[in-house]
Design brief:
Keywords: Hydrolase. The model has no long low-confidence stretch (mean pLDDT about 95). The chain has one domain: Carbon-nitrogen hydrolase (Nitrilase/N-carbamoyl-D-aminoacid amidohydrolase). It contains five helices and 16 strands.
Length: about 270
């Protein structure tokens, strides 16, 4: 099976966003991908300012059954596509993601872990759950979620073989480096992707936004990581697709043949979170 992770820029222009999604879906289809993971906030863009979000300039919010998701599903057709957006639920907003095909929605996730600024405009989600798709059993995380090992571990214990990490992850805002490769957040972004894959012996498919918004520079660095923590394909900082071909079940079985991390857990010895 071929898996694709996208690095691309998305903003407030929804027609432009849908056009870019259509192009990425087409490119992934031409590459033979069965799964495409698009960035966080691919529909409507991300916050323009992470330190002081303007409540009058937030991304558009869509209900869980908004027709725009049907438009993405129509583009996806036979492919499984994960896409991020701002979800409206009454007066609350969530940083959310949905996995879908042309047949409809397969799974949903609301970002659980919110950095300080996001918590002023978004409500936190309250669960992690894997779900079955034509591309295998998948779970989803949204950028800051992957900083916490418990997030991916919960999905892996729930049977996820693939974890899709959708991000709008910028370079460091408080301590900018002259080159993205030297940036602290750039290094952490890659570290978390590889660690979450290796510690759970699963495949991690990590997408991210590119370009700049306000004072933020998004990192790109989309990648597919194997269950040994090895990067199988990546985009670096440029926009594009990272495409890897692998037998997911066989790769996971090989990684767990001698040391099976999930099978060797000792939960009775672990202190519960406060």
């Amino acid at each position: 099976m071929r898996i694709a992770a996208a690095a691309a820029h998305f903003g407030r222009d929804l027609d432009h966003d849908l056009g870019r999604i259509g192009k990425l879906v087409g490119d992934a289809r031409a590459a033979g991908a069965a799964l495409l993971v698009l960035p966080d906030a691919a529909l409507g863009g991300y916050l323009a300012d992470l330190r002081h979000p303007d409540p009058d300039a937030l991304p558009p919010a869509f209900k869980p059954d908004d027709p725009i998701l049907g438009q993405v599903a129509a583009l996806a057709r036979e492919m499984v596509v994960c896409v991020g957006y701002c979800e409206a639920d009454g007066d609350r907003r969530y940083n959310a993601a949905v996995a879908l095909t042309g047949d409809g929605v397969l799974g949903r996730h609301r970002k659980v872990h919110l950095p300080a600024a996001e918590s002023t405009v978004y409500a936190p989600g309250d669960s992690f759950a894997a779900f079955d798709t034509p591309a295998g059993r998948i779970g989803m995380l949204i950028d800051y979620d992957k900083t916490f090992p418990e997030s991916a571990r919960t999905l892996a214990v729930d049977g996820a073989q693939i974890v899709a990490c959708l991000s709008a992850w910028p370079a460091s805002i408080t301590n900018q480096a002259p080159k993205l490769a030297q940036d602290r957040q750039s290094k952490l972004f890659d570290l978390y992707d590889c660690a979450r894959a290796a510690e759970n012996q699963i495949v991690v498919v990590s997408s991210n936004q590119t370009g700049a918004v306000g004072g933020m520079r998004f990192l790109g660095q989309a990648k597919v990581v194997g269950p040994a923590g090895n990067i199988l394909a990546r985009t670096w900082a440029k926009a594009g697709l990272a495409v890897a071909e692998l037998d997911v079940a066989a790769e996971i079985a090989a990684a767990r043949r001698v040391l099976n991390h999930l099978g060797e857990l000792r939960p009775a010895t672990y202190r519960s979170a406060p």
